[in-house]
Amino acid sequence: MKKVFKTGIFTLLAFLMHSASFAQCAMCRASVENNVSNGETSIGAGLNMGILYLFAMPYLIAMVLGFFWYRNAKKRKANIAMH
Q1: pTM (two decimals)
Q2: For the chain, what is the domain count?
Q3: Were 35 and a residue from 27, 40, 47, 51 both cysteine, which residue would form a disulfide, CB within 3.0 to 4.6 Å?
Q4: In a domain, 5, yes or no
Q5: Domain of 31?
Q6: Per-residue model confidence as pLDDT tens digits over 5-23
Q7: pLDDT tens digits, residue range 37-79?
Q8: What's the chain look like in SS3?
Q9: CA atoms of 43 and 37, how far apart (whole Å)
């Protein structure tokens, strides 16, 4: 029951703090504002895609490592059951 409670609290905090994740660093924001004022709007889309790319990579790496860990544990369990 404690684990469910801790997971619920963590999820609640993650939802409450999500608005801060939409912010950009000061240098990125200044660069986008400067380019938009010059009439160039494509840099903002590229910057946002770069931010999403950097955000997603650690999760993808964790998923790949988790997959290999699961597969290895499954093989190890099958080998133990055979002997």
Answers
A1: 0.48
A2: 1
A3: 40
A4: no
A5: 18-82
A6: 888 888 887 777 655 555 5
A7: 888 777 777 777 888 888 888 999 999 999 999 999 999 998 8
A8: CHHHHHHHHHHHHHHHCHHHHHCCCHHHHHHHHHHHHCCCCHHHHHHHHHHHHHHHHHHHHHHHHHHHHHHHHHHHHHHHHHC
A9: 12
